[in-house]
Amino acid sequence: MTIHAISNVAIFNGRNLHPPGNLIFQASPGDILGVEAEARDLSGINAIVEGSGCTLLPGLIDSNIDTAAINRDLHIFASYGITTVLDMSSTETEIQAMRAEADAEPGLPSYLACGPLATAEIAHSNQFYPRRENKIVRSPAEAENFVTSGVNGPSKADYIRVLVDLPGIDSEILTAIVHAAHRHGKLAVAHAIQKIGYSRALEAGFDVITLIPIDGLIDADMANRLAARGTACIPTLCRARALAQLLLLEGVESASGIDLNFDYALANVKILYDAGVRICAGTEANQTSNAPVSIGESLHDELELLVRCGMSTIDALRAATVVPTLVFGLDDRGVLSSGRRADMLLIEGDPLQDITATRNIRKVWISGIEVEHWEGIGG
C-alpha cells in the first residue's frame, strides 16, 4: 500500500478550517487514512507534499453541468480541482459516452446524470435549450413512464429533472413526477428561471431547484417555506448571467415587457441564503448552448458570485463540497476525514480570507490519484 502525506497544511475539511497539520492518504487509488492536528514523524511515508502557506480542500463539486460529451471535458474539470460533476442537461447518447470515459480512466471526476428533461408540449425549453433532449409528459400515467424509463433506460438516471416554468407541465403532472421519482428512490430536480417556477416547484414537492429567477424577487415567505421543507437550490449564477445577457441582446425584455435582470438573481440567492435554504454551487458549464459557460473555470466564477450575493466565504466553499454531498447522498466525499475518498485540492493562500484563492491550484487528487497533466489557472 502506497502512503502519501500532505504536511503543514491548513485544512478546510468541508465544514470548517483547521490550523496547519498533516493529512495521510492511500494513493492510486485510495482513501484518506487520517487527519492529524499535530506534527509527527513522517519518515515511513512514501511521498510527502509540503503544504506550508497552502490550504487543502475537498475536491470541488459542480452540481449542474451540461457537457454534451465534448472530448476531454472531464480532464478539464479535473484540472480546475473539480472531482465530481452532476450533469443536468445532456442527452442519453452523450451520457453513455461520458459514463464510459469516467469509468474507463482512473483519476477522472465522478460523473452523475439524469437524461432527458421533462417538459410540456408548449414550453420555454426550446428557446433556452435548442440542442438538448427533452421528453414531453402529458399525464400522470406518462409521468410514471418517464421516470421508469429514465431510471432503467440508457441514461440510468441518478435523479429526475423537470422544467417547471410556465408555460409548462400541469401542476397535477408535476406532483405525479415527484411521487414517481421518490418511489424509485430518486431526487426530483426542478428547472426554474421564473419566480412562478419556484412557487410551482415548492407546491409539487421537488427536492432541488436549479437556476435562479431573473424576472423579479422571490417572496421571503416562500423562501422560508423552501428552507422548512429542506429544498435545496443550485442557483447556477454563471448560466443566469449568460442567459440574462443573451435575452437582453435578443431584445426579449423590451418585446415582452418583462423586467429581466441579473441583479434579481443575485438578490434572490441572498433571500434564499438568509432563509436557510441549502445552496449548492453549479454552473451549467457548456460550450454548445446559445449561452455558453466555460468548462471548469466557471465553478471558481460561481464561488465568487455566491460571495458577491452575500454568502460567507466558508458557506460558499461548503456549497461546492459538503452541501451537495448531503443533498445528493454522496456520502463518500465532500469532507476530509478518515475513510472518505481522497478527492482533494491543494491551493496557495486562504480562501476564507479571499475566495479567489481557489484559483491558485498547486495539486489535485481524485481518489488518491494525482491529476498530472493540467493547465494551471493561478500563479
Automatic annotation (TrEMBL):
The record's SUPFAM superfamilies line, in alphabetical order, gives:
Metallo-dependent hydrolases (SSF51556)
The residue ranges of the Amidohydrolase-related domain are 78-368
Q: Which InterPro entries does the protein's record reference?
A: Amidohydro-rel (IPR006680), Metal-dep_hydrolase_composite (IPR011059), Metal_Hydrolase (IPR032466), Metallo-dep_Hydrolase (IPR051781)
Q: Name one GO molecular function term.
A: hydrolase activity, acting on carbon-nitrogen (but not peptide) bonds
Q: Which Pfam families match?
A: Amidohydro_1
**Signal peptide coordinates:** none
Q: Which PANTHER family match?
A: ALPHA-D-RIBOSE 1-METHYLPHOSPHONATE 5-TRIPHOSPHATE DIPHOSPHATASE
What is the name of this protein? Amidohydrolase-related domain-containing protein
Q: Which organism was this protein described from?
A: Trichoderma guizhouense
Q: What is the lineage of its organism?
A: Eukaryota, Fungi, Dikarya, Ascomycota, Pezizomycotina
